[in-house]
Amino acid sequence: xxxxxxxxxxxxxxxxxxxxxxxxxxxxxxxxxxxxxxxxxxxxxxxxxxxxxxxxxxxxxxxxxxxxxxxxxxxxxxxxxxxxxxxxxxxxxxxxxxxxxxxxxxxxxxxxxxxxxxxxxxxxxxxxxxxxxxxxxxxxxxxxxxxxxxxxxxxxxxxxxxxxxxxxxxxxxxxxxxxxxxxxxxxxxxxxxxxxxxxxxxxxxxxxxxxxxxxxxxxxxxxxxxxxxxxxxxxxxxxxxxxxxxxxxxxxxxxxxxxxxxxxxxxxxxxxxxxxxxxxxxxxxxxxxxxxxxxxxxxxxxxxxxxxxxxxxxxxxxxxxxxxxxxxxxxxxxxxxxxxxxxxxxxxxxxxxxxxxxxxxxxxxxxxxxxxxxxxxxxxxxxxxxxxxxxxxxxxxxxxxxxxxxxxxxxxxxxxxxxxxxxxxxxxxxxxxxxxxxxxxxxxxxxxxxxxxxxxxxxxxxxxxxxxxxxxxxxxxxxxxxxxxxxxxxxxxxxxxxxxxxxxxxxxxxxxxxxxxxxxxxxxxxxxxxxxxxxxxxxxxxxxxxxxxxxxxxxxxxxxxxxxxxxxxxxxxxxxxxxxxxxxxxxxxxxxxxxxxxxxxxxxxxxxxxxxxxxxxxxxxxxxxxxxxxxxxxxxxxxxxxxxxxxxxxxxxxxxxxxxxxxxxxxxxxxxxxxxxxxxxxxxxxxxxxxxxxxxxxxxxxxxxxxxxxxxxxxxxxxxxxxxxxxxxxxxxxxxxxxxxxxxxxxxxxxxxxxxxxxxxxxxxxxxxxxxxxxxxxxxxxxxxxxxxxxxxxxxxxxxxxxxxxxxxxxxxxxxx
Amino acid sequence: xxxxxxxxxxxxxxxxxxxxxxxxxxxxxxxxxxxxxxxxxxxxxxxxxxxxxxxxxxxxxxxxxxxxxxxxxxxxxxxxxxxxxxxxxxxxxxxxxxxxxxxxxxxxxxxxxxxxxxxxxxxxxxxxxxxxxxxxxxxxxxxxxxxxxxxxxxxxxxxxxxxxxxxxxxxxxxxxxxxxxxxxxxxxxxxxxxxxxxxxxxxxxxxxxxxxxxxxxxxxxxxxxxxxxxxxxxxxxxxxx
Lengths: 817, 241
Known about the structure:
heterodimer, A: alpha+beta, 6-stranded mixed beta barrel, B: alpha/beta, Rossmann fold, 6-stranded mixed β-sheet, 4-stranded antiparallel β-sheet, 34% helix, 27% strand, disordered N terminus
């Protein structure tokens, strides 16, 4: 213990004696440890930290997939089948997101909410902080109108008073008795503020309702059952349903994912992949930092060789010296770790802004990137591990020399320094360059992929568009013509506003997070539908001028206009992908198509227009999905309507005027989700943006560190080889020979590093394949360009030491030796 | 008795290989002028074996550096083979060093990463000589010093005496006009020192011009002319009997 204290004191003294070395080392380590801590903090927040539900890692969600990839809500049919046939779950429940118009609490307000089974909340293991949850009796058909409210809504409308319990809440014109207040931050499903019981006997519902895909099924795994086992079982049950109900279920499958993955909005697992790719990236960066610091240590070790040899001559054992040097390394690592924590603390708000998740639920937990106990332990472990990584090699190297006397006398008769010391330096710099190349290639691929995704043709012009959502309550809009009348009146008035270029209505804004409506279609005269390839399309019910306002491109025919009324010929405008799937190689204009739903008959619609593909579906951004646009006046529906306005001025400047127009048409109509189209778009590629920005930053940091490392090694090498260079000059070497000698040496290291790095990158980038769009994980152009870039940077890093070598005075250089 | 040597050394009338006229060297350190050499006049003829002797700090090594074109004089003139070389550019001086001068250093100065052969070949590579020719020159030089059998060894595998023989071979390899040796025995024991001096004597007998700096009287006597320096001046120029 006393020896350790002595080592610590001596180590601290050595670090204080060389403040420049200490500062550079601590800064390099802080960068590496800080970046690791920040990314780990993101992983901790998104993947590890407990959520305000009971034992979150045992909770799973069943997602219904069409054709194995296209995600939908789940039908009651699946829930009932799981309830009756599955052995994987200890409990399960169903919830359905919906929104309410909250009336009587000030200005009418649209609030998000859900209808839930009583066992949905029980499965989550969440209990109200005030009052009580629904009882099983209250969840029966014909049960009482009761509601639970969120903590935030309780604070906002009831000032957090306990007497809110048993007060009434007017939702969509109906009065509900408040039973309880949910815990702070809890808002599942979606971002619910109000929960009412489902009050449905599933088994008594008509098959069409049981097959409707608009619910969320949540379940708790039985002890000992894995997610994979549950997934396998539910897939088998889905297959049975396909055979039992072919009219409703053909082409439909399921996938079981963890609740956490569902909350991240990460069906494909891209967030997880991106986070682990980034963790590997910061790991690589840390290794580069370690290599740089080890280089410094080695160089310092060579300089301290005499002192260490003297210690050995005086009787210090090899391990005693290793321990002393390691103690110094640990001190440095801990200092670096503390500085790294400060850096991470500074980086975390940036990470929170770049938040990679599409999910909006439990934002208080999943958007709260903070340093907690787990992160602190991680930072400490990384710091200690770092100390061992960068300290052990130089320590073993310095303590392992056996020729004591010549080292003590420092009378080596050969110029150029000890070749073995330089071998280690060379090895480290090759490793650094190889790792930097791998990082750069990964970063390059992710940035390019993100750029390609950003430049995907949206099929519309997002600038100067503003959108807002309105849920027309059935209590006031019981007749469909009333909804059409509301839309017509609002549009007519909006178009007269100064600054408005055009306006339209649609049932879904492109790429919005809300429930997107789809339809199965049938082509007139076409072959019978393939059971494994149900033709399905994004179903958009739109007003005249909507497509013009969106900026969609008409390829052929015409768009929807004001003459397309309920009493005229049913028409439809289709996208290119729709036409390609429905009538490959044929002109779609004049062809007929209709919607298909079991138990219902829809009229044939004549195609009057063909538009360029529009990116409508958030979950299928990477592909072109069929879309049809049908006139709002011709297709009755109770979907929310979205006003979309193209402006000639800053679109946000018109918000008040637009609200005013709507309230003049219907004073009680709440307006929500007011957003510009660019804001909606910014939420589409969050994971890709997070990955690209951070991996790009890591790659640039890696490049800088590696080039500084190479520069340091070259500068050190020149100083070590001063005598040799002087000798060469004495023997007649011209300046260009000296330049060639140093640059050749540096470039040899660089090229070996690049070669090793190419092999590393070739095997590493394959792990990124699922994150990439529009380019291969082994894209030759990227591999070549990055190799060239690193070669040029290597050349640049070697040039300055080479230039100073060229200027060496041979007399002084020889005297130096 | 102090004698000036210039007259004596130029009496045969032939153009000397090296002629220094009034060469001075002044070092400026922290605004203090140090006169390392003051008005050196020195001629060295082809085939001479000259030793430069004197106490430590008298300017021997500075003089050798100027003779070897490693350094430039502060004043005076220096001609080599009748050409003024004191004011040449750095690359020109490097070219002349490479072709006309062979260096032998006290501390051998072999490059640790290169083999014996590569060390000897090194000055020839800077001459742009073809590989075949280099091989022949380097092998011949190694044979002259009796080190051809160690051509593939690294310097660290040789004794001090052997290393110095390799250094001599390197100096000889390019057939220079003059060999400049700076305390060539300084790092050797007496047996190895004698061996190196014998080697230099043999080279001289075969026609080599040698200028050697030494502070050891015994080794200075191997030369056929000794120039004594004191405080940067030539105080004696004695031709051996």
